[in-house]
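Researcher: Quick test of sequence recovery. Tokens follow.
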């Protein structure tokens, strides 16, 4: 279900990049980066607070709403009245109206925090799927309508506001029992104590992702922002899609493991290896197959993003090893460590981008590959120090996934030498890549005795049994 939601969201992106120019998307990318940064801060970790709590009372729900309203409204007002200053800083006059339009969603969004968090806590992903998919489909239709009227990137700002309103309306019908409209501040101390470092960690994590847009937007041009963000956006979507089944349940599952005094590190290593066996080969192959993928999805105007995707693939592979680390740290009440971790990664990322940009966008992507390696080492060390994670056990467990990934990568490389991706129809190239790698991946998971093979085999058995029944 979550895959459908992510797929709908990505379909929206595909539509947009074919209707707007790189220059237009570059301007919007800068504005949306800052807006999404504020959006992460506006909830102040309140959603995760409810998910983590064993007992959710009415006072806690109303207090979460109260904190969300105060912070969200303050940020919305700051964006609205600070729009002119931000526009002058980036030297794009249209940004003033863009910031002001996008700030309006901050006055509606707090009311969906409590119901959405509780739906996730209850594993009610069906309702969340309906809310997200319907709102995204409406967003696509509205965006296309306004673009055809000549509203350019203002269409996206209008859509953001409509999307939040639609989500609130759908939440009223699908989760009215969780909807809270009266704020309170009785539990404010508990929320603020939890949300402080948690929110700062979220902000720094978001900063690491939007740093390229903000730094390149100031040092370079809107077109350069769009070219780089298209490569980064594709890799981010791929990672989100591949982990969509793990991320929503990671925090509730690890929190429950801790409450039950189970071996959390063992569960973390198991989840990490399951993810790696799926994600690493796909990301690596996608990086090597960047040409047919970019042309097929986004069109010829984004060819400059191709070498960027290749290097960002290296960055994402290393980042993927500890993609569940934030959930582990939150579940174990290590919000402060999560904050230090996210802040460190942001500083390293910002320095790498600022230092490499003068050599071009490809150099920035190469620098990010190095950042990925540093981040892997840093997080591994921090988890060992604080939670006793066995680093040798982690490294040993990665060997089969490394073998799997390198084999698929080599198969794709030899295929590219045979048919030359740049001279073939993208659909033909991608079809061949799938025909070679899917059977190869299945065979290798069995030969290497990876747990994912046994999970798939068990799932297929359950499916056949359900059909028989």
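Model:
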């Amino acid at each position: 279900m979550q895959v459908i939601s992510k797929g709908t969201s990505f379909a929206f992106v595909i539509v947009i990049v074919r209707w707007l120019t790189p220059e237009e998307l570059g301007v919007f990318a800068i504005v949306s980066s800052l807006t999404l940064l504020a959006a992460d801060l506006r909830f102040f970790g309140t959603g995760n607070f409810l998910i983590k709590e064993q007992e959710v009372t009415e006072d806690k729900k109303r207090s979460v709403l109260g904190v969300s309203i105060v912070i969200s409204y303050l940020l919305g007002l700051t964006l609205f009245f600070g729009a002119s200053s931000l526009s002058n800083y980036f030297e794009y006059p249209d940004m003033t109206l863009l910031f002001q339009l996008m700030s309006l969603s901050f006055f509606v969004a707090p009311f969906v925090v409590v119901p959405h968090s509780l739906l996730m806590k209850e594993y009610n992903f069906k309702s969340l799927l309906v809310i997200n998919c319907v709102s995204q489909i409406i967003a696509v239709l509205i965006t296309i309508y306004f673009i055809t009227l000549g509203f350019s990137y203002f269409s996206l700002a209008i859509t953001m506001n409509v999307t939040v309103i639609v989500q609130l309306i759908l939440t009223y019908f699908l989760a009215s029992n969780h909807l809270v409209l009266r704020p309170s501040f009785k539990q404010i101390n508990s929320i603020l104590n939890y949300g402080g470092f948690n929110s700062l960690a979220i902000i720094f994590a978001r900063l690491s992702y939007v740093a390229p847009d903000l730094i390149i937007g100031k040092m370079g041009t809107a077109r350069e922002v769009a070219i780089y963000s298209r490569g980064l956006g594709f890799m981010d979507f791929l990672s989100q899609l591949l982990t969509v089944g793990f991320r929503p349940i990671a925090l509730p599952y690890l929190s429950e493991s801790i409450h039950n005094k189970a071996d959390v590190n063992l569960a973390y290593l198991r989840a990490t290896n399951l993810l790696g066996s799926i994600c690493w080969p796909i990301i690596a192959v996608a990086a090597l197959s960047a040409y047919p993928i970019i042309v097929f999805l986004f069109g010829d105007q984004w060819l400059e993003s191709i070498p960027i995707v290749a290097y960002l693939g290296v960055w994402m592979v290393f980042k993927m090893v500890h993609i569940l680390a934030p959930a582990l740290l939150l579940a174990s009440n290590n919000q402060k460590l999560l904050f230090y971790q996210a802040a460190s990664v942001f500083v390293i990322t910002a320095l790498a981008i600022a230092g490499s940009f003068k050599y071009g966008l490809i150099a920035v992507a190469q620098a990010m590959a190095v950042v990925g390696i540093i981040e892997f080492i840093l997080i591994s060390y921090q988890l060992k120090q604080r939670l006793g994670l066995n680093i040798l056990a982690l490294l040993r467990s990665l060997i089969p996934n490394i073998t799997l990934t390198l084999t698929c990568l080599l198969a794709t490389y030899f295929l590219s030498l045979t048919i030359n991706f740049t001279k073939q129809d993208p659909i033909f190239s991608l079809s061949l890549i799938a025909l070679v790698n899917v059977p190869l991946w299945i065979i290798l998971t069995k030969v290497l005795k990876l747990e994912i093979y046994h999970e798939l085999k068990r799932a297929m058995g359950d499916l056949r049994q359900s059909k028989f029944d």
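The two ends are 23 Å apart (CA to CA).
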